[in-house]
């Protein structure tokens, strides 16, 4: 069966490609792109005029909550939400219950993700770095790597002991396994729920100082520099953090980092009247931080954009601010928010935007993804985006089980229209039927 994605702007950072053309698929594989394919006899045609045809998006940082948190999200609902967001590969975090610290649990995740009810998205599991994510004894990383983990992380329970982290890095060098690190000195943050500053003081909330993040980043970057361990720093939030990472890269440390949309969109003021949708870790900071973060996105210091999709059930967030969990649902808003806040404001070109959302995270975590080159992904992984579609984000029209999101009601410009993973796994209701013809 042949499928033609016709007359779109093909954006593929892996080939430095930005041109209006058509992309041909034969069964579940990409054949190639070119105007000549428009004359080939095909079984179905998608008219992509005015749209971007990109490699399927890659999210390095997603919480699927299964096992143990099925009231928040499941592997099935989470992968469906990912497909609706344009993602074809997502990395799932190990802070489940129990934590993903054994090969049996990795097998479970991969089996569930491959089930027919799931969204058709590739799930790349991240294993726990230490047993039970307790920060003491290393988990069985070699066995988990054989089972399919692509990195190791203790996520929101970062290793506090520098000796343990140093040993973890030395071991991961031998295994050729990247470490993903949420950087936080928990002695400085305990009990905190928002950025430390005048607003936390006014609201009477315990603050989370920026130094808690920056100290942990400096330590981890130095350990990475001296051990040679590949380190990916998760969701940076302060200008100081960005400067530390810039310096580490300058010194030659194998360090990369990500940002999530909330940290380039909102500031501490948005917490307003104790709005738990704006509670995130690390916390929302200030406009000065956003201004420098935007520069760092443009100059490449910040390598990629992760959703940090952190779904919670509504009863968990309908509580006083201090008691609410950190994080919110993000997979289905990330493209719209990124285009609205960065691309349409001229911070990132369309090609750079897709690089941060697809090709670069795939390269960092060595995933077979993030490219439209024939044969370089297991099946054709494609995302079609209408960059000019103006819409209002409505949490009730999402696939995620979690309806807790700060982007609800926000006007966005740019929307995922189609997602392919071998075949079509998502088509947006706004994609006009007249643009899709079975010939
Ligand atoms: Zn996370």
Short description:
This protein has helices at 75-85, 103-113, 141-147, 162-175, 186-189, 198-203, 210-227, 239-251, 261-265, 287-299, 314-317, 334-343, 350-364; strands spanning 2-12, 17-26, 29-33, 44-47, 52-55, 57-62, 87-92, 122-128, 151-153, 179-181, 194-195, 207-208, 231-233, 255-259, 304-305, 381-392, 411-421, 423-427, 436-438.
The average pLDDT is 97
Largest sheet: 9 strands, mixed
The best one-word shape is globular
Q: What is the rounded distance between the termini?
A: 12 Å
* Name of the top-level CATH class of the largest domain: Alpha Beta
Q: Assess the beta-strand content as a share of residues.
A: 15-25%
- Give the helix/strand class: alpha/beta
Radius of gyration (CA) equals: 21 Å
- What is the CATH T-level topology of the largest domain? TIM Barrel
Q: Determine the CATH superfamily of the largest domain.
A: Metal-dependent hydrolases
Number of helices: 13
The count of β-strands is: 19
The proportion of residues forming helix, as a percent range, comes to 25-40%
- Given as residue ranges, the uncertain stretches (5+ residues, pLDDT < 50) are none
List each distinct ligand once: zinc ion
- How many structural domains are formed by the residues? 2
CATH architecture tag of the largest domain: Alpha-Beta Barrel
